[in-house]
Each structure stands twice: as structure tokens, then as C-alpha cells.
Specification:
The protein is an alpha+beta fold. 47% of the residues lie in helices and 20% in strands.
């Protein structure tokens, strides 16, 4: 099994779905037993792409590699939308993505400074010592090419703020950066005579950016009574509305985050940190904006997403059995690859949502799945 483009995967029996995933990701007996344990829980329902611990999105081709993507979310329609969007973009060659940076920032507040210029100079003269001291708190990170890289200083109101810039490699970095800030605090207090205030990681992660693009032949976007050209025209109108109306922009972005959060939850990542990073980043220019962009190039609809994505494959809840299983199904180990895939899922969800919101309306497909799900659970 070398492809995730399985026709009508959601219609297959649970046994057939598991067999496909097992062969694709080389799952062991232990992996299969974990999946079965989730199928025994009272809230498990064999419906659509649900295999137990999470649901599976299909059709993802990212940087030339196939992926089945685990998603943890209560709405089966979100997974169906991700799979449909990925299928459309696959016809244009799939997704292409890159990580533009992998640095996180820790913030340390210095209080009671009288001469800011003199204090800044003192700190800058000791910059190398401060970075070395920070790195002593995690020598393994330094060995594998990560660690504290730089520091910046800025006067904000009555405070001097030190920004510690750290490459956490495949970790999110919260605990290690907070530890680094604690490590350097006594030294900073000694050389500046200032009081140490807050020292904590920042969730504004403009130095950890992922960019993903994908395109679809316009003719392939035809939807029932709507030709591809009309669908694209309506998508671009909806994009323009999002760029000029916060009521639409927030909903636009929420649809993208449906997919991103679901992958984060499946892989044991902090979706709250991701939400904070993305929504703050989109309004850095002073106006809240959609996090995806769509345009026409030749005979294609081309989409791009460029967002901060603090995501990890080591540390914290990423080490749980379920999260490790999700990463195994994805066949990845590095946080950079996970970030690119996660952003691709967001772009796929966005494409699916825009195409139906702008034409037949979101309720037709969404409510159909919702009713089928309730029927499966014997709800009235």
C-alpha cells in the first residue's frame, strides 16, 4: 500500500479500514490492540472514517509523500471536508510546503531600572555568557543543534524586556524555555541590580512559520449545478469578503483551524497554543485577516496558507501511546514535517468549506452527516 487516495474509504468496513492503515503504516500487533481498546469504549461508533482513537483523513499528498492523517474531532464532516479538499488539490499535484523558521521566544521582564541605556549595554556585553548559561539547562538540546541562539532587548513602558530566542528542535519548547529563563534570572539580577519580573515563554510565535500551497484545475471544482468557473468566482468573492469584514474573517479562520486543531489533538499537541499563535499573527498589521489566500493562476485555483505553527513530536503529551500511534500512522518523526502536514489539512478544510459555502450552502452536506451520525447513535 503506497497511496492514501482510497476511493470511498469511508464506506469500507472497519476491518477493511484497519487493514489498509496497518499495511500503509506498518502497524504492529501492539498498535492494533491499542486501536481495538478504543473501539470498546461506550462512545465509539463505527461511522465514516472513525477507527477508534481518532478519525482518518485520506488523499493527502504533501511534498510528494502520501499520508493518512489522524484527526481527533467530534464532527465527522470536518474529516470528510479535509479528505475532499485533499482529493481536489491532489489533482493539481498535491500540497507543497516548507518551514520558514523554528525559533520560539521567551520573555523576561526587568523591573526598577533607572538607566536603560547603561543596563542594555551591560547585558549585551554579557550576551555570550547569558546564552551559555541558558544552554546549560539542556545540554542535550545543544548537542542536537538546538538551544538558545540569541537575545534581544526592548524598553516597554517602565520595563526592560529581554527576549530569549531558542530553537527547541522537535519540542514545543515551553518547559525548556521557561527553565532557561529561570536559569539566567539570578545572573541578570546580579549584573543589572534590577528586580526580575515575569519570565515565561511567549505564544506569539512569528519565528516558527509554516507555508503550504496547493492548486486545483478550475474544471475540477465543478459542484453539482455549479460549473468550476462559477465555483472559483464565488470562492474569490468569499475571500474578498473575509479580507474586508471581520465577521466573515473569523469564521473563515475557524474553518481552517477545525482541521489544524484536530491534527494537533490527535498528535498530543497544545491546540490552545496554536490557536493563540495563529489568531494573533493574523492581525499583526493592525487588521484581522484570513489566514489563507486564494487566487487564479492560468487555469488553476491556487491557495496558500502561511502561519506560525508551534507543534511538536517530542515532549509532553506527544509521548502518550495514542499520540505516538498517530505519528506512526503519519509515518513521521520530525516536528517540521508534522507542521507542514497540519497546515495542509487546514488549507484542505478551507477549500472544501469555501466551495460549498459560496454555492449550495454548508448545511446540505454537514447536516446530512450529522443526521446519519445521530441515527447511528440511536438518538431521536
Amino acid at each position: 500500500m503506497s497511496t492514501s487516495a482510497i476511493s470511498d474509504f469511508h464506506k469500507l468496513s472497519l476491518k477493511e479500514k484497519i487493514k489498509i492503515i496497518k499495511e500503509f503504516s506498518n502497524l504492529t500487533g501492539e498498535d492494533l490492540n491499542l486501536i481495538k481498546s478504543y473501539q470498546k469504549l461506550p462512545d465509539f461508533f463505527d461511522f465514516e472514517n472513525n477507527i477508534g482513537p481518532f478519525k482518518i483523513a485520506t488523499n493527502f499528498l504533501v511534498n510528494g509523500k502520501d499520508y493518512f492523517v489522524p484527526m481527533e474531532i467530534e464532527e465527522p464532516s470536518v474529516v470528510a471536508a479535509a479528505s475532499r479538499g485533499a482529493k481536489l488539490i491532489r489533482t493539481g499535484g498535491g500540497f507543497f510546503g516548507e518551514y520558514l523558521g523554528n525559533e520560539m521566544v521567551g520573555e523576561l521582564q526587568l523591573i526598577g531600572i533607572r538607566d536603560f541605556k547603561k543596563t542594555k549595554n551591560k547585558i549585551l556585553r554579557k550576551k555570550r555568557e547569558i546564552l551559555d548559561l541558558a544552554n546549560k539547562s539542556d545540554t542535550f538540546l545543544l548537542k542536537i543543534g538546538g538551544g538558545a541562539r540569541d537575545l534581544k532587548l526592548k524598553k516597554i513602558k517602565d520595563f526592560l524586556v529581554l527576549y530569549l530566542i531558542v530553537d527547541p528542535k522537535d519540542a514545543l519548547g515551553a518547559n525548556l524555555i521557561n527553565t532557561m529563563l529561570e536559569k539566567i534570572s539570578p545572573f541578570l539580577k546580579k549584573i543589572t541590580k534590577a528586580e526580575i519580573g515575569a519570565r515565561i515563554i511567549s505564544n506569539f510565535t512569528e519565528r516558527r512559520i509554516v507555508r503550504v500551497e496547493g492548486k486545483v484545475p478550475i474544471k475540477n471544482l465543478a459542484l453539482k449545478n455549479f460549473p468550476g468557473e462559477i465555483v472559483v468566482e464565488r470562492i474569490l468573492m468569499l475571500q474578498k469578503l473575509a479580507e474586508n469584514d471581520i465577521f466573515r474573517a473569523v469564521t473563515h479562520n475557524k474553518g481552517v483551524m477545525n482541521g489544524i486543531d484536530a491534527v494537533a489533538l490527535a498528535t498530543g499537541n497544545d491546540f490552545r497554543a496554536i490557536e493563540s499563535a495563529v489568531h494573533s499573527f493574523t492581525q499583526r498589521g493592525g487588521k484581522y485577516q484570513p489566514i489563507t489566500k486564494w487566487k487564479i493562476e492560468n487555469n488553476y485555483l491556487v491557495g496558500k496558507i502561511e502561519i506560525p505553527l508551534p507543534i511538536a513530536t517530542v515532549g509532553g503529551a506527544t509521548q502518550t501511546r495514542k499520540a505516538r500511534l498517530a505519528l506512526k500512522i503519519l509515518r513521521i518523526r520530525e516536528a517540521r514535517e508534522l507542521g507542514i502536514i497540519t497546515a495542509a489539512v487546514g488549507l484542505a478544510n478551507n477549500l472544501s468549506a469555501l466551495s460549498v459555502v459560496a454555492t449550495e450552502g454548508i448545511q446540505k452536506g454537514h447536516m446530512k452527516l450529522h443526521r446519519e451520525f445521530l441515527k447511528k447513535m440511536d438518538f431521536k
